[in-house]
Amino acid sequence: MILPIFTYDAPILRKKAKSVDDVTPQLKKLIENMFATMHEASGIGLAANQVGKEYAMTVVDISVTEDNENVPPLVLINPEIMGAEGKIVFEEGCLSLPDLRSDVVRPEKIGFTYFDEKMKRIEREADGLLARVVQHEIDHLNGIYFFDRLPPITLSLLKGKLAKIRNQKVETSYELATPEEMGITKRVKGKKVRL
Ligand code: ZN
Fold first, then answer.
1. CA angle 55-130-86, nearest 5°?
2. Which sign, positive or negative, has the C-alpha torsion 121, 48, 8, 5?
3. What is the pairing mode between strands 74-85 and 57-60?
């Protein structure tokens, strides 16, 4: 099942996700739906809060990108960065921020831990695109967008685009959640009033 994707500035995308202690049948179903939703939207990573669920869980699949055909898809439950090395610039986008792209500086190589679908704890290292996606998704689980990592001057240039996203004045090839579904309080447009 394809799930509508939550966008800026849905309150759940600013919350720290809740730790998962059991992979229930419902959670398994959610994982399946998240993969379907991510693939449908041509994304390579999707965090549970991007589909409105408060779980510390994300799916990643970079096998659709060049030179990564052999990298298996990953389900990361309660993932955490344990160490980082180097710095590198990479242009990021985000399914929750349609049309917004920017160069972001992040560590080049990371060590991280997570639990897999069988709740087995795994420790591993990553570099390249995988390191980038994992960092981006773990940020989501902590309520952080990639634009939070930009210098203020760069961010100020993106303000107009962010306003468009917030007002859902963007076209996407995938389904977005409605303001009601995202729990966004409606804004009164037009007249400035004094109360
Ligand atoms: Zn994202």
1. 110
2. positive
3. antiparallel
**What pTM was computed for the model?**
0.94
Euclidean distance between CA atoms 85 and 128, whole angstroms: 12
Active site residues: 137
- In SS3 terms, the chain reads as CCCCECCCCCHHHHCCCECCCCCCHHHHHHHHHHHHHHHHCCCCEEEHHHHCCCECEEEECCCCCCCCCCCCCEEEEEEEEEEEECCEEEEECCCCCCCCCEEEEECCEEEEEEECCCCCEEEEEEEHHHHHHHHHHHHHHCCCCHHHHCCHHHHHHHHHHHHHHHCCCCCCCCCECCHHHHCCCCCCCCCCCCC
pLDDT tens per residue, range 2-44? 999 999 999 999 999 999 999 999 999 999 999 999 999 999 9
- Rounded CA-CA distance 193/128 in Å is 51
Q: How far is the CA of 98 from the centre of ligand 1 (A)?
A: 10
Q: pLDDT tens digit string along 68-88?
A: 999 999 999 999 999 999 999
Instruction: Kindly state the tokens that stand for 62.
Output: 């970079």
| Cα 137 to averaged position of ligand 1 atoms, centre (Å) | 6
CA 45 to centroid of ligand 1, rounded, Å: 7
Q: How far is the CA of 46 from the centre of ligand 1 (A)?
A: 7
